[in-house]
Amino acid sequence: MSSRVRSALSMALAFALIAAASWLVFIGVRGIWRTLISVNPDLAVAVIVSAATLLASTITVMLGRYFERKREIEAHFRAEKIKIYDEFLAELFKVFHSANEVSTDQGGEETNEKMVQFLREWQRKLVLWGGNCVLATYFAWMNRMKSLPPDAQTIFLMDEFFRALRADIGQSSNGLPRGAFANLVLRHGDFFLAEAKKNPHITLEELSALEKTHFGENQD
After folding, report:
1. Domain ranges of the chain
2. pTM of the prediction?
């Protein structure tokens, strides 16, 4: 049985119990009301008004505490997610920014090994704290990088992952065009977006060659 089915059954059972309890309370209140009316109508009205006031005050306090506790839990989860997501972004940008400084194959292998070790630990945290959209976009991005050479679609999947991270902590990416986050990891984000429109599957190697032609050989 899937988690959605179990959740739906749990909600249905909860509503059924609430409905049954409400019906029993209604029957009890109706019986008390009829008894009081038959004995003393003025007393019955006073009792009902007092009971309604007390009930309204109790419900107000309970709802206030419930929503306050809910906000505290959400704030705690958001703080943990921000810490975990920031940890990943710091490591990712470190790799991107140091890529141009690595001059030997050995240095590149060391960088890749460190990133692999980091991901093994970080992905364990992602399973526990990542939202559904974050996980889905991360899987799509990682699977693309594992199966094909890095190209424009790899960058666009990374862009979707970044947007999912922001949405999961309550930040909106409205107004940012698709691929906007390429500006954070590529030297010429606008040039990349223009070339990606011409060739949606342009590889980063091909992009680098075009950049050297367009911006000059001494851009490094």
Report:
1. 3-72, 80-219
2. 0.68
